[in-house]
Amino acid sequence: MSTSLPFGTCPVAMLGDGERITLAHGEGARMTRRLIERTILPRLGSAVGQYELNDAALLSMPSDRLAFTTDSFVVSPLFFPGGDIGRLAVFGTANDLAVSGAQPMWLSLSLIIEEGLPLGILEQVLESIKRAAQEACVQITTGDTKVVPHGAADGLFINTSGIGPALEPPVLGPASIQAGDELLVSGPIGCHGLAILAAREELDLRPPPESDCASLWPLVSALHAADLLQHVRAMRDATRGGLTAVLHEWANACDLTLRIEESRIPITPNVRGASELLGLDPLYIANEGTMLLAVEPRHTAPIMAALRAQSPGDQACVIGAAQQRASVPVIVSRVTGTPRPLDEASGVLLPRIC
Amino acid sequence: MSTSLPFGTCPVAMLGDGERITLAHGEGARMTRRLIERTILPRLGSAVGQYELNDAALLSMPSDRLAFTTDSFVVSPLFFPGGDIGRLAVFGTANDLAVSGAQPMWLSLSLIIEEGLPLGILEQVLESIKRAAQEACVQITTGDTKVVPHGAADGLFINTSGIGPALEPPVLGPASIQAGDELLVSGPIGCHGLAILAAREELDLRPPPESDCASLWPLVSALHAADLLQHVRAMRDATRGGLTAVLHEWANACDLTLRIEESRIPITPNVRGASELLGLDPLYIANEGTMLLAVEPRHTAPIMAALRAQSPGDQACVIGAAQQRASVPVIVSRVTGTPRPLDEASGVLLPRIC
């Protein structure tokens, strides 16, 4: 087995001399159908709803307002502590629907597979997709499989697109944030990016950092059930670019300054230690199951209670507030001193973290 | 400029020493936003509807029944006579909706870009996507951009997913095909696969074969407007695996034998000549704007008239019929002799044709 294929923490048995994906698996005829019917659909099991082998799935929508989103996943390595590309692909897209104020319902699943990928790797990713789809309460309803020659892709890329009915009342989004609104984070930050970095670079961190990769639907659903979603101005999962990227985008959208206090942001000792060791700032590190919320301040307490009653929201914290626009869009009060501008990242952070 | 990047017939000016995609363009922060705001959205222009920079687009659906489909495009080269990866990505997904009996309405657009791709190439593909979206009457409503290091992908991969309202009455699909139903093809076959092969292998065919890459919505829409869709049992664009793959799938779905006559299948002299030269059978070659239809025989004449009144249906032909199940699922009466089984392809046809 070549070590150049970045499979990460996939069990060694999967990397043996078993069957591998060939170009014929992507030809659209008998071999492709066999791959779908014998490998893909059985492994997805009950996660598959009304799946159409070709063309489109026909679905009945419970609402005339729907949300639609897409994400391609190119993470390297494919397996890492706390997750794998399959879990990321399900939760990433389902979370984009949830934080938009929609119920994740249906996903598409499109695979771009590099010739030579061990079939065992694909099977493990598919089983992971199945479990994640069950956790996120979504069904895979349509798909596509392409195979490219060895060297034309890096193991496996996955695109998932998702649709679901918009919740009522709608979440208005970051342009609706007002001065005085409070900023909440749903859990500890920095876990996912550090887990990927440590797995890719084979850093011997003990314990190894684990991705926070998780479905955010339980949190959004709890807020909706408690009639609290109407008091949430904006929600966003803080993926690429971390908390900082979301803060900047929101500050630009609402033309306010967002101010956060470093001491109030939940960061695990593990992530704090590893970040200091590596000279990284957790505020820029990607998350995959942690979201930022901007909420009306008089409803902060019940919203916090609803978040904290659910996993993965049990460590939710208020970390700051929106205020009238100052000279900079985002300000952080560091633990060590006076408030400072929190600049947007402009260069390469860490490629292929999702 | 390295010649190893398979750009095909892209104008040479695009391959100059201009700006290139870097890993920073995919980081999810400022550089990604700039790429989207300054390159992607302006180039897509009016093809963009209610586009959400992040997360999900919120859409109002005119029907509670919708179709959902996905397709990833990995074609090599990126540009070829008659089309490019952008046109393929729009028409491929829009056609999957149309042949499922749905109106193509909204597409997502997810780009996986290899570091080092000249920005001019990306811009040209985006402009092509814009034109194709206008031709197919669809809007791009949500998207995603990933950049992978040089060598981890091959230039550019595109995923499009699509949704649209299901037409009434619904098209029942291949399981509803009955003995006596007639088989129609909407245009000449074999053009797309040969165009790709000739461009990739730099075959000096004169004139160079051109892809049939086109929107099939005008044909489906015309059938719907004339109240003829209810007499169509099944439609399918004959992409990977060509006409043969669709015939086999349908024969299995309806448990009948499908019989076609080679002499009735439209094939351009150009495709016929090139196929003979290369030892290929057009029945196995991919198409990107040609569909097979199974129709109730007493409605064949008006359906043929409706197809022939529209581009790309002006060369539509009746090519065969369904009959009681014989010993083989698909039979072809060759020009040269007695009827013979048309076997399904089982090996590698031509990789990366879409």
**Global structural class of chain A:** alpha+beta
- In the sheet with the most strands of chain A, the strands line up as 10-12-9-13-11-14-15
Query: Describe the biggest sheet of chain A?
Result: 7 strands, mixed
CATH architecture type of the largest domain in chain A: Alpha-Beta Complex
Q: Most extensive interface: pair and counts?
A: A-B, 82 and 82 residues
| Helix content estimate of chain A | 25-40%
Secondary structure tally, helices of chain A: 8
Structure description:
Two copies of one chain form a homodimer. In chain A, the strands form three sheets. Chain A has a seven-stranded mixed sheet with strand order 10-12-9-13-11-14-15, with helices on both faces. Chain A has a five-stranded mixed sheet with strand order 1-7-6-8-3, with helices on one face. In chain A, strands 4-5 form a two-stranded antiparallel sheet. The first copy, chain A, has eight helices and 15 strands. In chain A, α1 (30-44) crosses α3 (119-136) and α2 runs parallel beside α3 (119-136). Residues 1-5 of chain A have low confidence and may be disordered. Chain A starts with 29 loop residues before the first helix and ends in a 13-residue tail after the last strand. Chain A folds into two domains: 23-164, 60s Ribosomal Protein L30, Chain: A (2-Layer Sandwich); 174-341, PurM-like C-terminal domain (Phosphoribosyl-aminoimidazole Synthetase, Chain A, domain 2, Alpha-Beta Complex). Helix content of chain A is 28%, strand content 24%. The first copy, chain A, has helices spanning 30-44, 85-99, 119-136, 191-200, 217-225, 242-254, 269-278, 300-308; strands at residues 48-52, 57-60, 65-73, 79-80, 83-84, 106-114, 139-148, 156-165, 182-185, 232-237, 257-261, 291-295, 317-323, 330-333, 339-341. Chain A is α+β, with helices and mostly antiparallel strands. At the A-B interface, α1, β2, β3, α2 and β6 of A face α1, β2, β3, α2 and β6 of B.
